[in-house]
Amino acid sequence: MIENQDEILRVRHCPKLEDGTLVLAFSGWMDGGDVSTGTVQRLVELLGADPIAEIDPEPFYIYNFPGSMEVSALFRPHIQIEDGLMTTVDMPTNTFYCHEPAGLVLFLGKEPNLRWRTFGECVFRIVRETGIRRILFVGSFGGAVPHTRDPRLYVTCSDAKLLPEMEKYGVRRSGYD
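and the corresponding structure tokens:
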């Protein structure tokens, strides 16, 4: 069952884009070296993109994972303590930013542990309401590649008509099971 999105997706402002593009980056498995989130964070900063919506993290993450302290700590919110006082609590965030002149919506978030369908519906609601026509996901993973080589870029498309466009940019077709 998909939950009430109005309680989970908090929309501050929903711009109408003519031919918008959504660029997504998630921390976690496909964020090797923080390249994915770092790329989108840099775009947010360079463009001065404004936050337009957030997905509430509460229904989507496991905060108490059984196991050793080292494993459990990976799932818990991070708390900073100074001189015996808790100063900050760092909860997962899922934020949409927009730079209207470029027709860009940028998303920075954490890959959900739970309720993927509901999380996805929150993303697609922003897609529908802003006029997004193209969705790009920035993923990265570590590999034994020396820094002297150019990084390899791959693409997976849901529409075969997009493949020739991506190849113009030197992006190779991926093969992944």
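(Above: one complete record from the training split.) The chain has five helices and ten strands.
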